[in-house]
Amino acid sequence: MEEEASGLANPLPLGLIALAFATALIGSSFARFLAPLPMAGIGLIVAASLCLGGVVQILAGIWTFGRHAGMGDLGRYNTLAATIFTAYGGFLLALGTLFLLPTFGTAAAFGTGAIAGTINHILALFFLCWAITCGVLLLAALKSSSGLTLVMGLLFLSYLCLFVGELVNAFLPILIIGGIFGMICALVAWYSALGWLLRSTGSPLHLPFGEWTAPYAPPRGYGSEPAV
Q1: What are 6-51's pLDDT values in tens digits?
Q2: Residue of 150, 152, 202, 215 with fewest CB within 10 Å of its CB?
Q3: What is the 3-state secondary structure of 2-30?
Q4: Sequence ranges of the domains in the chain
């Protein structure tokens, strides 16, 4: 059994849940869903980014990187998931810290009289860099499960819309569209996490979330669960 060889539990559900939780709150904030006040939305972003979204995803990513250490070709199937979790966790930590800057009095980095447009453009650059990263990860995920590919595709569209919205000085309709894409991405990630949990626990209930579409047959582990 793969779990006996690695000695570690499957970290994929944890990483997907953390991704979904943070993305749902950030998406809800920008979509003005149940958080119409800007300050309340910023509070959601900071909490989601620094705690569950940032720290937990980095831990899940490191856990995934080390899960198949010394197991040869078996480890390559976890490289993509580990990269996604660790990279997104780091991005969320940086995003949460950015929103905390005014709170801790370090907003002087923007200038005491910084106009809102300058801050919008800073966020736009932030979101552009992550959208490009999501595009790279999306291309890498095309030969993985359809569930992970869909998560990365929606995440890419979400941050691309947030980039465009902030670039044109917080144009609300585009920001709302980006937030909605983020909320849908979170739902898909939660669904995929549940599918992995059901397979890992040997539940008779199975949720279809896409098998590996690579031309080679991936190693199997956890009963019927494919290794990632």
Answers
A1: 556 788 899 999 999 999 988 988 888 876 665 556 666 777 777 7
A2: 215
A3: HHHHHCCCCCHHHHHHHHHHHHHHHHHHH
A4: 2-103+114-226
